[in-house]
Specification:
Helix content is 11%, strand content 54%. The chain is mainly beta. A hairpin with a 5-residue loop joins strand 10 and strand 11. It starts with 6 loop residues before the first helix and ends with a strand.
Length: 317
């Protein structure tokens, strides 16, 4: 009986596909437009040890990975012409704010944060032997005394950076004259980042119980596994805390670098006065490359922002 509830949705999709396939002429191009979007943002960051090329601190979808409500106002660049292939500029302003980013696991015990979260329903700590702390100490002996005097040290980081990205995207879609399906695009550009990050040592790094999302509709905690009784067990993104936090070093960023983006839109309607999109995902990545003052020769940061829109509506200018 439950399957019948999906029949209206399937019929609507089939009708829409039929309409799209029966369109004549070239697809209608998008226009410069202003609009509203309903979605969330998922910032992430990672820090790579330059001496070994190994990521030692990174965002994980099981720990402190909570969607935030996205700023609703938006501007859209218009497409220069009709056709199933397009190229338009992109511009994005992202604020990447994350605290107590967890240490990367070295995988020696074949466990991930997903495994640890599912196996430990309550609070648990990360052991030094599970991380790259020893390798970091060997490569950077100036921090050896401060780290080795702790009972269960792990690395962590805080970041608060505003990033401006500009570039060009290239993409394609399947459509009739007004309806588009599966818009897919990638792009390259430049970025400018301004802010600060701090690399800390914890004693220990502790993962608490499940935490609440600011935007539960897009909860990032959809990780499931079949439990022993055959029921699906859900592991939420957990709160991670850097206990007895001590700052090893801080860096101020004011850097140009490379930027990249990837865009996907499931369904779009392009009309004469408005445009509507359903289910969108945008990635914006930044790698500080042209390092100026405050360049870090120990850990190199890289950060991204993923946006997920349930829907958006634009008014054509």
């Amino acid at each position: 009986m439950r399957s019948r509830s999906f029949l209206p949705v399937i019929l609507i999709l089939l009708v829409a596909l039929a309409i799209a396939s029966c369109g004549t002429g070239f697809p209608k191009p998008r226009a410069n437009a202003v609009g509203l979007r309903f979605g969330g943002a998922l910032p992430s960051a990672e820090f790579t040890d330059q001496s070994v090329g190994r990521t030692v601190i990174e965002t994980n979808n099981q720990v402190n990975f909570v969607p935030k409500v996205r700023q609703p106002l938006a501007f859209q660049f218009g497409e220069p012409g009709a056709g199933h292939f397009f190229s338009v500029p992109y511009f994005d302003i992202s604020r990447i704010t994350a605290y107590d980013i967890p240490p990367s696991l070295n995988g020696l015990d074949n466990q991930t944060y997903e495994d640890l979260s599912l196996d430990n329903p309550n609070t648990f700590t990360i052991k030094r032997s599970q991380t790259f702390t020893d390798r970091f100490v060997n490569n950077h002996p100036q921090y050896e005394d401060r780290i080795n005097k702790l009972s269960e040290p792990s690395l962590s980081a805080d970041i608060d950076v505003v990033s401006y990205s500009y570039g060009q995207i290239f993409g394609f879609y399947f459509s009739g004259t007004r309806i588009r399906w599966f818009t897919t695009a990638v792009g390259l550009g430049i970025s400018y980042s301004y802010g600060v990050y701090k690399v800390n040592v914890c004693d220990p790094y502790t993962v608490m119980g499940p935490s609440q999302s600011d935007f539960p509709v897009l909860s990032s905690s959809i990780v499931s596994r079949l439990a022993d009784d055959g029921e699906a067990a859900i592991a939420d993104s957990r709160e991670g805390v850097c206990l007895k936090k001590s700052n090893l070093f801080s860096k101020h960023l004011s850097n140009f670098g490379f930027g990249w983006t990837a865009v996907f839109k499931f369904y779009s309607y392009v009309g004469d006065t408005f445009e509507f999109n359903l289910l969108e995902s945008d990635f914006y990545g930044n790698i500080p490359t042209f390092l100026g003052g405050g360049a870090d020769t120990i850990l190199k940061p890289k950060y991204t922002t993923q946006y997920i829109n349930l829907m958006s509506l634009y008014y054509r200018l």
